[in-house]
Write a structure and sequence with these properties.
Elements lengths: L1 H4 L3 H8 L3 H12 L1 H4 L5 E5 L5 H10 L5 E6 L2 H11 L4 E5 L12 E7 L8 H11 E11 L5 H23 L3 H12 L3 H11 L2 E3 L15 E9 L4 E7 L2
Parallel strand pairs: 1-2, 1-4, 2-3, 4-5, 6-8
Antiparallel strand pairs: 5-7, 7-8
Helix pairs in contact: 3-5, 7-10, 8-9
């Protein structure tokens, strides 16, 4: 399904979000500037798709000579990402987010923009992220959630009826853009995601003023996790906007 939409994936993202998707990536990258500016930092963009979030991370890092990698299990998406990331000091890998071919505690930062929602098992996804994250490392998850109230009603009409038609018209494929509203509806709201992360590993949580607090809560939620280690236990600090 994702391979089928790859050729027009970028165009559709920009059209369907009215180009706001660029703002989301930029803000997410800006949040982790303190990590991205570290010359020895290693960063993984999980479910990277065609590489837009990966590129936002590299741009935010500037001339810092750190290591940034993008991983996705859809070959067609990586094929689209390759020319965009060429000569940008970005490594791309074809990999399953639930079974990453990576060493334990390898990364200082793991991000996932609009991809975590598509994992078959959120618990397993969180456990795998936790496995490859260094002690003291951070995670940023950016994804959709449904708003409430009057705005939520308008949003659902657009998302369930207008968006699939526009997506199908531009891509020539119906299935993926009918799947999108359903996947967002199934995706846990921030509070439920906190419970999911608790089930995946021991966590400690606090509120983080992320993108949703800056007026984007109608279309997305974000989460930030920090792994730290004490002599006795490992834990995650997860904060979720919403």
């Amino acid at each position: 399904m994702f391979a089928d939409v790859a050729p027009r994936y970028d165009l559709l993202n920009h059209v369907l979000s009215c180009n706001v998707d660029r703002v989301w990536w930029w803000r997410a990258a800006r949040t982790f500037s303190h990590v991205l500016r570290q010359p020895d930092a290693r960063i993984l963009d999980l479910c990277c798709g065609t590489g837009d979030m990966t590129l936002a991370l590299r741009k935010r890092a500037g001339k810092t000579a750190n290591q940034i990698a993008g991983a996705d299990f859809v070959h067609a998406m990586l094929t689209r990402a390759q020319p965009k990331t060429a000569d940008k000091n970005i490594a791309l890998m074809e990999a399953d987010a639930l079974r990453l071919p990576l060493l334990n505690e390898a990364f200082d930062l793991v991000t996932s923009a609009f991809g975590f929602r598509n994992l078959a098992n959120y618990d397993a996804g969180l456990r795998e992220i936790y496995r490859v994250l260094k002690a003291g490392g951070e995670v940023g998850i950016l994804d959709f959630s449904e708003p409430t109230g009057i705005l939520g009603k308008v949003y659902r009409v657009y998302f369930k009826h207008v968006l699939p038609r526009i997506g199908s018209l531009i891509s020539g494929i119906r299935g993926p853009y009918s799947y999108l509203p359903d996947s967002v509806e199934r995706f846990p709201v921030p509070e439920e995601m906190k419970k999911t992360s608790l089930a995946a590993s021991p966590v400690r949580m606090s509120r983080w003023p992320g993108t949703a607090d800056r007026g984007l809560n109608s279309v997305n939620s974000s989460a930030r996790l920090t792994r730290s280690r004490s002599a006795k236990t490992d834990h995650l600090l997860m904060s979720s906007s919403g």
